[in-house]
Amino acid sequence: MQVPFLSTHIYHAEAVRATMNNSTPEMLAALEDELILAFEDEVSELEKAADNDGWFRYPADAGLRIVSRSASRAMFGIGLCRNEAFNKLTIEFSLGFAKAGFAGMLLPNSVRNVLRPLLSRRPRESAKRITEIMRPELEKRMRRLESNLKAREEGRSGDIVPLPADTLSCLIEETHKHGPDHFTVENIAGCCRIYSFVAIHSTNLCIFHSLLNLASLTYQQDDGQRASYVPSLRDELSEIYASEVLPTATSEARHIDHQNAPKLHPFSKGWTGAALDGLRGLDSFVRENLRMKMQGPTSLHRTVAADGGITLKSGLHLPKGTFIAVPARSIQIHESNDPDAAEFNGWRTGRPGQADKGDAATTTSSTYFPFGTGKHACPGRFFAVKEIKLVLKHILLNYEIKEIEPRPKDPNLFVYQIPPTRGVSPILLRRRKVQ
Ligand code: HEM
Question: What CATH fold (topology level) applies to the domain 11-294+334-431?
Answer without folding.
Answer: Cytochrome p450 (1.10.630)
